[in-house]
Prior knowledge:
This is Ferrous iron transport protein B. It is found in: Cell inner membrane; Cell membrane. The protein has twelve helices and eight strands. The strands form two sheets. Strands 2-3-1-4-5-7 form a six-stranded mixed sheet, sandwiched between helices. The protein has a two-stranded antiparallel sheet with strand order 6-8. It has helices at about 15-25, 70-80, 95-105, 120-125, 130-135, 150-165, 180-190, 195-200, 205-210, 215-225, 230-245, 250-270; strands at about 1-10, 40-45, 50-55, 85-90, 110-115, 125-130, 140-145, 270. The chain has about 280 residues and is α/β, with parallel strands linked by helices. α3 packs across α12 (about 250-270), α5 packs across α12 (about 250-270) and α7 runs antiparallel to α11. It binds guanosine-5'-diphosphate (GDP), magnesium ion (MG) and potassium ion. Magnesium ion (MG) binds near residues 16 and 17.
Amino acid sequence: GKNIHIALVGNPNSGKTTLFNFASGSKEHVGNYSGVTVDSKQAKVNQNGYQFEITDLPGTYSLTAYSPEELFVRKYIMSERPDVVVNVVDASNLERNLYLTSQLIDMDIKVVIALNMYDELEQKGANFNYKELSKMLGIPIIPTVGSKGIGVTELFDKIINVYEDLDPIVRHIHINYGNSVEESISNIQREIKKDPKLCAKASPRFLSVKLLESDESARFMVKESDHHFEIKKTAKEEIQKLEKEFSEVCETVITDAKYGFIDGALKETYTENPIKRRR
Ligand code: GDP
Ligand code: MG
Ligand code: K
C-alpha cells in the first residue's frame, strides 16, 4: 500500500503522545518533555491499506524558532516534509492553541486538526461550531478524545482523504493581515520568487512573514540565496514602513494580526457555556 508520513504538531499537553500511543498501540509514557533532549518518536501503523509513518513531535506554542522545541518542529516540517501534519488542538484552550495553527496555515502544508480534549469542551457546556471554523480555516477538524481513543478512526479516514486531495473542505487560505502588511508581504514575496531554489525550501509567503518578524532562521535561509541582497533590502524597507505606520515592533504587528484573525473566527463559532447545564 501507499506510505503516508504524518507528524503530530501541537501545544504541550494537548494530547499528542496520547493520540500517538493509541494510534500506534505502544505504551510509551505520557508526560512532559524533560527539556534536556528535544526528540521525536516514530511508529508505523497499517490501516485501510495504507502504511502510516507517525512522528510525535515535541510540544510547541509557536514556530518562531525561539526555543529548541520550536526550532526542532519547524526544521522537521520544512526538511522532512510530512505528507500531512496533524495539528493536535486542545479544545479547552482554543485561542492559544490556534495561534500555532495560524502559523501552520502560513506554511502552506496539508493539515488536519485533531480537536482533542473534546470531552472537556462538552463538560464545560460550550457551544462550538467547529464545522464552521473548519470552513473558515480550510482545514478539516475531527473531534477526538485521545485518552479514550474516540475519533481516532475518523481522524485516520480524514488524513487519507486529505492526502489523496479528496477533501472538499481543504483550501489554501491566507490569513489576511490587513492591507499594509499584505502589501509588505507581497513586495518581499516578489523578491523571494526570483529565486526558485529558495522557493523550493520554504513557502515564499511563510518566509516573507518570517522576515517581517525578523526571524533568525528565515534570515539564515535567505543568506544562502543568490538573490539575498535584494530580499534583505526589501524586507528591511518593509519593516521600517510598517513600524512607522503602527508605532510598534513589526513582530508585534504580525502577532496582533494573527490573534485578530483567531478572535474573529472564534467570535463567530464559539460561545462559552451558553446555558449552564444543571442536573
Ligand atoms: P502532549 O504533551 O501533547 O504529548 O500531551 P499528552 O499526550 O502527554 O497528554 C497530556 C495529558 O492529557 C495526559 O494526562 C493525557 O492523559 C490527557 N489527555 C490526552 N487526551 C485527552 C482527552 O482527549 N481528554 C482528556 N480529558 N484528557 C486527555
Ligand atoms: Mg508528548
Ligand atoms: K506533555
